Amino acid sequence: MKKILALVMILTLSLTNISIASEILIEPTIKRLEYKSVLDIAYSGTTYAAIFDNSVVAVSNNLNTWQSADIKGTLRKIVWNVNEFVILADENIFSSADGLNWNIKCENTFDLNFGMSYFDGKYYLCKSDGSLGYTTDFQNFVSLDIKIGNRVKNGELIFEIEKNYYLFDNLGKLYISENLTVWNMTELPFSDDVYIFLKKDGLFLAYSLQLSENNPDLFKLIIIGSNDLINWNNNSRDYSSFGYLNSLLLIQHENNLLLYSKEHKPYGDNRVEYSGREEHISVDGKTFNFTRREFKNGLEGIFSCNNMVIGFSDNKCFYIDSSEVTYSDNKVQSNMHVEQINYANRKLINYTWTGQEFIEIHEFSGYRSFDGVDWQRLAIAAGTARQIGRVLDQDIRKFGDVYMGKGIDIFSSEPVFFTLIAEDGYFFSSRYFTKSETPIIDMSYNNDYYYIKYLDGRVMKSRLAIGDNEWTLCEELTDVPISNDNSVINPETDSGVITKIAKSINTNHSIDIQYESQNIPQQIMSAYGKFYGIRYKASSVELAISEDGVYWYNVVISDKTNLKAEIESYLNQILITLNGQKIIFDVDDINWIIDQVKPPTNAYVEINNKILGFDISPIIESERALVPLRFIFETLGAEVEWDNDTKTAIVQNSENSIAFSIDNQTATVNGTAKTMEVPARLIDNKTLVPLRFLSEELGYTVAWDEATRIATISQ
Length: 715
Fold this sequence. Notes:
By secondary structure, this protein is mainly β. Helices cover about 5% and strands about 55% of the residues.
């Protein structure tokens, strides 16, 4: 069916054995977007609204039936402000009265990582430098002259207890206020994240986590108590954890405290992940008895909301109503309700695609698969597995026999960069492992050099990629080069947006590309011998495909324009995340269709030291290059007039004038009839004209380089 659609299009565009098109038709497979975690939940009094890491908001009135809405951007925090839900996202602030229909309130100028709290009509947030303040409209910010020393990992910014307010940072400071305006600071005996803060029987209790001194795989639950918020008593115990524990929540029921935790373990050679939710009971807030419940395939999130524990696991929502909790012999008994989520699919295994294979490395071993089904255990050095296995959000890419990877260290939360060498195919040993203050956001390999790009914009390169001294700064680059094995392009970005692309002519020379369309493809990647990107136009979002980075073929994937797309590849597929869906294109279909519409060979035009990126490629007919008319000659400063009724064009500059018609070899040059070797053609609503004839008759010089297939036009 996909190839039939393409053939219909090709036949409509065929003319004298010429087939070319900038827009192509490919029928993709569309699936509901996968998610890995649930980030936050809010309750309006009648409706629950949960945000997922795939830019989806799920809404339910009863925790049974869920509906979903899609929002553009990275979502972090959701609150209910008495009248509407409000979401803090990376680019915008969103609002909705029902959780399904969302509007953009304004652009977001606050830092996502500090979270957000809402009290009495005011939103409390932080700027990127940690400055705390409040706003009522997200436009006017009132600073409170407090700077938080570090990120608040659990997203809770301010705790409220009996109409007093408490704010912890990660540097051992506690800020206290009675009115959210005047704050007093006191020192704490520890500097770790405070996950829970409460008051029980006149005693303030703060709960945090620290690594156990005796076993780095276990956590210690730190509980500190104080009567006056000045003098603190420290209580702690080893907290049983499989691998790492990354969240706590607590609710109070009658005179008892229920403590819930989320933990995770990549477990055994059968590649099944287990996550546990520990359910604890305490009378004094210091000593807890607990039971354990296991969830296969991971625990995506657990929250305290509406005096209930609400969690998500394996496409299911579970919840425990605290009013249904009973106690026997100081042990908790609770009824857990489980409901199926029917709108989302989830990856069962957390792996990374290197460009050639799936790789997963955890603390004990690693696995590799070429199809995502059959997995081979890797022979990997124990020290390497221990290092890499404790890296979160692993992004590993393969270049030759070298694997380059990045992520976040689980214990220090510092950005990590590492390289691995594959010896004899699948024995992995670490070559380089380092932590840095600045995250690495991109990696590539080209012409015997490895490249990395930091979040602050620096681009470094290395021939060996094995040590600090091997990396040198590339002052001429703003992004890593991208190669598809046949061509190399050098994007240039400004504030994360690609504003310019240069094409490498050889290892020492590249030329900027001047595109006919102002919509330069974004998020460009290389996969399966081609470049792929996302093109945002005034009326559509498109998948852009190119073999050389100069001429692009476009597939419309959405007629909505306020959406943000993400692109990736694996298993011979191009996958686009858009509007809560996975749009999947088969690479074989893409290659087959482009082979039908592209010209046999590409020719390039250079003017004023720039390669012209026409919307449709120049073509060769009878050994003569035909190029799109208007873009090239207006770039040269000439005027172009077009009569659509007669299909006649007039091109003139200060000295010469040429008139010609479509499919007619006779042209009128300054009033004199002359014969063109090939006529002008009308293809895909573009007028293509013989390059050398028109250029030279208008007084320009054309030089052709057969090796690079570049025609350079000069005045």
